[in-house]
Design a protein that fits this description.
The chain has 21 helices and 21 strands. The strands form 5 sheets. A 6-stranded antiparallel barrel has the order 3-5-8-7-6-9. Strands 17-18-19-21-20 form a 5-stranded mixed beta sheet, with helices on both faces. Helix 3 (52-71) packs antiparallel against helix 4 (80-99) and helix 20 runs antiparallel to helix 21. The N and C termini lie far apart (106 Å).
Length: 705
């Protein structure tokens, strides 16, 4: 009937508008308090001068939407439902700032009011208040920065248009504002109206579609034009009596079904034959064993053969129940009605399946270690790795990572059977411990994937607490028959990708073994450093750092290797500190002796090369010994490991030497430069260590020695 909560409240409270009820008025009061705008007056249309009241309604409605959505596990982002939330938030922030004069950060403060209003009925928003507020505040701040930059960019675009005699912002310019600054086209239209201009909306749509095409092509071989398999194409198939594709064969390992070509899609539409047609070409069959990309699992590839003709399938996608097999070209000719064989690359599939099954086991392990607040936020399963995004407010500790990896590996070693079956959705939802992805709409019947318990056991006692000790999920992907077929599991990395969202990358089978071997080899190299010291140890550590940072290995082992390297780094630092102290003491002693000798000989200046690794600070302290006794000196040293030559000149009052000139003479042969001169001292360094003897000679010559 459309009798929602707000309408019911307006009837009970005798109000003509939902916005006049106490569902919204407390939020309006909070908005007025934080913005300082005139109070809400309920005006509409032309009466609402400046759209102030409209802004109140937008802000109030949107903060409610965002509070509940984020509390339920969604978050503003760049794709899908997350992008919808980002646009909702930006619209509210824009209205608040433009129409109500709100300051940066106002929007996040309104969450408290929403929680106070609805928290007694919806306790989840009370639990999530802090996280919701943090996410909105961060997103609001980010948009604030973008908004300022975008306004400046719009001003430049508008000025340029007027210089060129245009009163229209082009589609490409509007798209730039949308893509780079997050400005929805309606905002651009408003800004244009304020400047007596308009927007080329058709041009914007064209630019938007072109960008979508480029995005689709970016990840494809060759980056050329790609087939569009969307509503127009599927409508054509349905209208022309093409049956939905029977893709049940995708679950039968090694299946090679005999199929019939039902339709052929090209860049110019549907055709009867591929003869004379350039690629790409899409084949729609009556049945297939190819898995179309969905649920985070990449599609199958392979070959479709028809007599002497064959087509290499590079991509498989599904839309409205039709499966399209995309091929760059066809060797020979294929026509509608031809019998074909579906030859899936099952070797590749054999590497995808363990990654998918272990993604389920990983989801279970994360909940065991981190708690039930973990929710899946996305996944990618291919033949090289598995990637899993999940909700968690902070980085996992090394101990948590190790526990999760061990739990998944335990499931591999337990040789658990993996059961799958389609079950009535209502029955499936009754199973204790079953996990589903928030926001997903599942079919009825729905396919259950259970790692361990049989489907019969699950349905026989759906409320059993035992099922919480296993991975049980809704999933339409291809899986192993037994967890032991994964051979092994390693967790390669854990990182944050958004506020409150973490990402794990893992591997199974050969990829896991290779990662473990890499870790073992690097651990052995680090252990071998126990026998090294000095320059050899520094060189070995420098080489290892880059390798450890970039090599593919388990995260646990990477952390252990870095810890072992840190011990060597501390050893290097301690040795360097000890050597520096010794070098400094030796330098001060040597300069003291040479100062005494110079004074005994009636000289007021000397030049000396001190021991290696005497750093600039030691040179300064050593030169001060001579300086205090009225003797000028030029001191040199080198660091063979870093490839640096250093010099320090000191000229006390009463000695007739140009400090800066003397430093320049010292720096020339070592290819260096320096500075100073104030107070009679200056220093420099260069990279030509071999030029040090010539620098000493130049210093002596300048001083007339």
């Amino acid at each position: 009937t459309g009798m929602g909560f707000e309408r019911l409240a307006s009837i009970l409270q005798g109000k003509m508008s939902n916005y006049d009820t106490d569902v919204f008025t407390p939020i309006f009061d909070a908005i007025q308090a934080v913005t300082g705008a005139e109070p809400y007056a309920g005006k509409l249309g032309d009466e609402d001068v400046g759209e102030r009241d409209m802004a109140y309604r937008v802000v109030a409605d949107h903060v409610r939407t965002l509070t509940f959505a984020i509390a339920d596990g969604a978050a503003p982002g760049s794709d899908g439902r997350n992008y919808v939330l980002r646009r909702v938030l930006r619209r509210a922030v824009r209205f608040g700032r433009e129409k109500l004069g709100a300051k940066q950060g106002f929007f996040a403060t309104l969450v408290e009011t929403v929680v106070r209003l609805f928290g007694d009925v919806f306790p989840e928003i009370v639990r999530e208040e802090k996280r919701v507020t943090e996410i909105i505040a961060e997103e609001e701040e980010s948009f604030g920065r973008t908004l300022l930059k975008g306004v400046e960019q719009f001003k430049k675009i508008a000025a340029k248009a007027k210089e060129e005699g245009r009163d229209t912002v082009s589609g490409a310019e509007a798209f730039l504002l949308w893509e780079s600054f997050g400005f929805p086209v309606d905002l651009v239209e408003i800004m244009c109206e304020e400047n007596s201009m308009k927007v080329d909306n058709a041009g914007f749509e064209e630019a938007f579609k072109e960008a979508q095409e480029k995005s689709r092509a970016a990840g494809k071989k060759g980056g050329g034009r790609q087939l569009l398999f969307e509503a127009e194409a599927t409508a054509w198939l349905a209208n022309n009596g093409v049956p939905l594709t029977d893709d049940s064969h995708k679950y039968a390992a090694g299946s090679v079904p005999e199929a019939t070509v039902k339709a052929i899609l090209t860049l110019d539409g549907f055709v009867e034959s591929t003869e004379g047609v350039e690629g790409p070409i899409g084949l729609v069959l009556d049945k297939t064993s190819f898995y179309a990309e969905s649920g985070g699992q990449v599609c199958d590839v392979g070959v479709i053969k028809s007599g002497s003709a064959s087509a290499t399938v590079e991509d498989t996608k599904v839309a409205a129940g039709f499966v399209l097999h995309s091929c760059d070209s066809v060797d020979g000719a294929v026509a509608v009605g031809d019998a074909v064989q579906c030859l899936v690359d099952y070797d590749r599939r054999a590497n995808i399946m363990p990654n998918h099954t272990m993604t389920h086991c990983l989801n279970y392990a994360l909940r065991r270690v981190l708690g039930d607040s973990v929710d899946q936020k996305g996944s990618l399963v291919d033949d090289e790795k598995l990637r899993f995004d999940f909700s968690h407010s902070k980085a996992m500790t090394p101990d948590e990572i190790e526990k999760v990896e061990a739990l998944v590996r335990d499931q591999v070693n337990a040789e658990l059977a993996v059961h799958t079956r389609e079950v009535a959705l209502a029955w499936a939802k009754e199973i204790s411990g079953l996990r589903a992805v928030f926001g997903e709409v599942y079919p009825d019947p729905v396919r259950i994937v259970s790692v361990g318990p049989s489907i019969d056991d699950l349905l026989g006692a759906p409320a059993s607490e035992d099922w919480k000790g296993y991975s049980i999920e809704f999933c339409g992907g291809t899986h192993l028959a037994n967890t032991s077929d994964a051979a092994d599991f390693v967790l390669l990395s854990e990182e944050g990708i958004a506020k409150g969202v973490r990402r794990i990358v893992g591997a199974t089978k050969g990829a896991a073994a290779a990662a473990m071997k890499t870790a073992a080899d690097l651990a052995a190299r680090v252990a071998a450093c126990d026998a090294l010291s000095g320059a050899e140890l520094e060189k070995a550590m420098a080489a290892l750092k880059g390798t450890v940072d970039t090599s593919v290995m388990p995260a646990v082992q990477r952390a252990e290797i870095r810890d072992a390297m840190a011990k060597h780094t501390k050893r290097i630092a301690a040795a360097m500190k000890e050597a520096a102290a010794a070098a400094k003491a030796n330098a001060i002693a040597a300069v003291g002796e040479q100062t005494t000798e110079a004074k005994s000989a009636g000289a007021s200046v000397f030049v000396a090369q001190l021991g290696d690794f005497t750093d600039p600070a030691a040179l300064k302290d050593a030169a001060a010994v001579a300086f205090k006794q009225g003797v000028a000196c030029a001191l040199f040293s080198k660091d063979p490991v870093k490839g640096k030559a250093m010099c320090y000149v000191s000229v006390p009052e009463g000695v007739s030497l140009d400090v800066k000139g003397w430093l320049a003479a010292c720096c020339g042969p070592i290819g260096g430069k320096g500075g100073g001169g104030k107070g009679g001292v200056a220093q420099g360094q260069g990279s030509d260590v071999d030029g040090l003897p010539a620098a000493v000679d130049a210093a002596k010559a300048f001083a007339g020695l």
